[in-house]
């Protein structure tokens, strides 16, 4: 790997740490596509999972007293089913297909963020229920196992409940701590976590810790909405890159000339 590759990887991991402590919205979802641009997609998701667990531990340590447990209860059954469904898909998809899926999730994330901003202007607070919670849990388990990209799914579930910032971050942290731990067995079974990925994960641990510390500092000083807007723009461009849109566009321009 080149110095540039390592820089991109460290930047991605720092974003994960930053987002886990509540700053930057879904900034951490950018980590998987960025790592997939440096490593093979299967290695990328395998490298990131242990680091997510480290960042989850840091976040839970900060916010474990602020959790809406009843809201999370509705998510667990669907979450387990989503993990199982994605694990089955890992056994049948190629690296290219996985790259396309990750790119698609990136663009879907951007679309969901846009939709959330529009809907939240008119939607009143509501109480979670089993049908909605099960559907969200299924989507979260599936997208998280596939590409560590369930952030926007949980946002759509938690934000309309009008939780306080502390309870929102605490509930988010606990949910993903449980979800990421449950992803370890299928990742090991599929060979997504191995000696090589664990070694790279170990090298990336300082970046996660630094990112978490930076996130705590930023929470006290900056508007996370502006930071999130930049992340969404980068995520959109990264998704297009993983889907091969840039290559297709350059080929089209070449034919026109």
How would you sum up this structure, described in words?
The chain is mostly helical. It has one domain (3-256). It is 78% helix and 0% strand. It has helices spanning 3-20, 31-38, 41-63, 69-73, 76-90, 95-119, 130-147, 151-158, 165-182, 184-189, 195-219, 224-242, 245-256. The longest helix has 25 residues, at 95-119. It starts with a helix and ends with a helix. The relative contact order is 0.21. The mean pLDDT is 81.
Notable characteristics:
257 residues; mainly alpha
Indicate how many domains the architecture comprises. Answer: 1
**Average pLDDT across residues?**
81
Q: What value does the Rg take, in angstroms?
A: 18 Å
Following the backbone from N to C, one meets helices and strands in this order, namely HHHHHHHHHHHHH
Q: How can the largest sheet be summarized?
A: none
Q: Beta fraction of the residues?
A: under 5%
SSE-based structural type? mainly alpha
Portion of residues within helices: over 70%
């Amino acid at each position: 790997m080149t110095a540039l590759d390592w820089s991109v990887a460290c930047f991605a991991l720092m974003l994960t740490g930053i987002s886990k402590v509540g700053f930057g919205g879904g900034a951490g979802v950018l980590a998987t596509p960025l790592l997939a641009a440096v490593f093979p997609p299967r290695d990328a998701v395998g490298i990131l999972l242990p680091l997510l667990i480290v960042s989850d531990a840091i976040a839970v340590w900060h916010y474990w007293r602020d959790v809406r447990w009843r809201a999370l209860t509705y998510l667990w059954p669907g979450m387990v089913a989503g993990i199982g469904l994605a694990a089955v898909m890992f056994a049948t998809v190629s690296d290219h297909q996985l790259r396309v899926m990750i790119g698609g999730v990136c663009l879907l994330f951007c679309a969901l963020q846009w939709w959330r901003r529009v809907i939240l202007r008119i939607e009143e607070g509501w109480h979670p229920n089993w049908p909605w919670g099960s559907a969200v849990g299924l989507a979260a388990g599936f997208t998280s196992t596939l590409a560590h990209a369930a952030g926007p799914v949980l946002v759509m579930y938690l934000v309309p409940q009008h939780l306080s910032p502390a309870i929102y971050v605490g509930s988010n942290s606990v949910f993903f701590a449980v979800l990421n731990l449950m992803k370890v067995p299928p990742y090991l079974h599929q060979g997504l976590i191995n000696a090589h990925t664990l070694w790279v994960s170990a090298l990336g641990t300082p970046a996660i810790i630094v990112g978490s510390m930076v996130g705590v500092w930023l929470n006290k000083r900056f508007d996370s909405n502006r930071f999130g807007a930049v992340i969404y723009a980068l995520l959109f461009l990264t998704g297009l890159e993983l889907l091969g849109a840039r290559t297709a566009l350059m080929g089209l321009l070449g034919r026109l000339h």
